[in-house]
Amino acid sequence: MNSPAPEDTVHPIPPRTLTVAYTGGEERRGPITMGQANMIRCILRDDPTHINIHDVWPVPGGVTVEAVTDALRALAVRHEGLRTTFPHPPGAAPVDQVVAAEGTFTVTVLDHTELPDDPAGYAESVARAARAGRFALGREFPMRITLLTVAGQPAYVALAFSHAVADGSAMAILREEFTELLAGKELPDLASLPPVDLAAVEASPAGLRKSEASLRYWERIIRTGPQEMFAEPRGRRPGTDEEARQLTLRSRRGGRALARAARRTGHPEATVLMAAWCALVAHRAGQESCVTAVPSANRFHARVARSVTTTSQDALLHLDVRVETFDALVARTWGAVLNAYRHSQFDSVRLWEMIGRVTAERGSHFGRDVVFNDVSALPAPLLGTEAEDRDGAEHELTWGPPQALPTRLLAFTYRTAPQLHISLWAAPSLFTPEEAEGFLSGLVLLLEAAAAGDVAMDALTEVTGVRPAERGPDWLRLDGCWVSPDAVREILGRAVGGLPVHVAEEPGPYGTADGTYGTEATPDTDGTTGAAVNAEPHLTAYIARGDTPLTPEEAHRALMALIPAAGSGVLAPRRYVLVTDPPADPDRSDAWRWLKTIEEGTGRGRQV
Is residue 535's pLDDT more than 70? Predict the structure, then answer.
């Protein structure tokens, strides 16, 4: 359904609904694409206000309501994705998409005697309000359209989209074409594939090989990379979404610095900006590498570049920042980004099955903590970038409205010239408002330093003013992750019903960072056989089970059920040792080691 406006807005003129009929398309049916499957999974699971997306299209003066509805009708006929539904039985996820040849959609018209002082902001609030309510995938038109008029004259079209048929790139394409239609221009023939044809390409032998390669690439990162970027004491909160305010940077300083740094290093601006982002994120998080999702990366191929559908599948960038200088990191970033882009097409169901399997073996919960979405190269600006009157801002930070944040750090880069224009949402449990502002300002400072010359990576605090996370001496780096043994002990104690638990760091040979156990040769994720695994330090959990019939497998299973909401710094022990009673001095590890062992194991199904 259409949502007419935010609740606190008063409209002196009652809304009216127009029903617009369209015809002239082709009726088709076929399997869903990998991108559609990925987003449908989220649509069926997540809060609609999180997964639905929205945009605002300004309407030029002198355009009639009829011209607006004609342009919307033309878009529906032109793009199969807008005529697509996903029929499915109750309780099951869709596997097919159906393209209608004809149909109808509605436009809610909100007429005003005058618009509020901030008309663009008001239109944005109307579009955002329309995101509430889950789209009925099997029958609902995938756009909720509200036309804002003043004395009958169109001013803005506020839209909410089902993420099953559109993503940010698709919204930008539609916005561009809508503007051209209103200007009387003829649109060129479609050059990119519609969703049904894209699904056929993905299901081809070459497409399936690409998907398999992507799964292997992701598995290497999930097995060896940090499981949470921001593992620190103040991040120890239940793993639920936080509400974060939008912080927007508009900086001509940043735009000039980025351009100069790109010229000096000989790399594209996008690569330099990505390197600066990863360097600062890893520095702030105190990590040796940066794992960041890059959602817009999978439109680099011509067959999907201008396709109105959702291609929302993350490219996952894993960038090792252990280099001496920023220039060396930029050079490394180029190849790493291309590698991530090449592996951004996959079967999302199998991906999450793999993540579940690997994290159970590793004893972790993989967090999509950092998202960097560079949409500056899209054919039209996205929502919130139409403030040309602020193009002259030399360096400006402004706070916007809050929204639920299903990650820890989310950035959208809207433009890089003539100014650097980035919006940031930072989890307030990890970033105070001053720290969030300092992070974006620090990014500009890093670019300015890189424009002037190479930057030592160990000087990032001095150059940017951004300080690494503070952790006490009880925090350990194990298996590529920052771990708090105290937090592990606390959560494991809850998992086993309050039995006495002691957690200690011990040397191998009971586990390695690739999720394997023992010292035998093991297969690598690409199918080859690796050398004998090396012993690494790990956590051992001692549990005094008394008369309780607890096994290592049961302890591990119970702990894994709590880890997703356990907060920060929790990684399952690699070894569980069960004893009858705790020692007289339960804080001493050696006292636990002297006790008679009833049973021990990894809990992963393979005994030590």
Answer: no
Neighbour-count burial of 505, counting CB atoms closer than 10 A to its CB (0-12 exposed, 13-18 middle, 19+ buried): middle
From CA 56, how far away is CA 125, in angstroms rounded?
10
d(CA 190, CA 193): 8
Residue 300 tokens, joined:
């680099």
Contact 519, 509 (CB under 8 A): yes
Residue 156 near residue 123, CB atoms below 8 Å: yes
d(CA 412, CA 415): 9
Cα 253 to Cα 175, 386, 394, 490: the distances in Å are 29, 19, 6, 48
At position 380, the amino acid (one-letter code) is A
- Euclidean distance between CA atoms 569 and 287, whole angstroms: 13
pLDDT band at 346 (very low <50, low <70, confident <90, very high): confident
Identify the CA nearest to 59 among candidates 159, 186, 179. Answer: 179
DSSP string, 389-439: GGTT-SSEEEEEEEEEESSSEEEEEEE-SSSEEEEEEE-TTT--HHHHHHH
Residue 378, class by beta-carbon neighbours within 10 Å (0-12 exposed, 13-18 middle, 19+ buried)? Answer: buried
Given a cut of 60, is residue 297 above it in pLDDT?
no
DSSP summary character for residue 496 = T
Rounded to an integer, the average pLDDT of 512-525 is: 36
Cα Rg of the chain (Å, integer): 26
DSSP state of 185: P
pLDDT value of residue 374:
87
Packing angle between helix 195-202 and helix 34-45, nearest 10 degrees? Answer: 110
Type of residue found at 179: T
Nearest-angstrom CA–CA distance, 292 and 571: 20
List residues bridging with 411 in a β-sheet. Answer: 372, 424
pLDDT at position 543: 97
- What is each CA distance from 330 to 70, 251, 569, in whole angstroms? 48, 22, 30
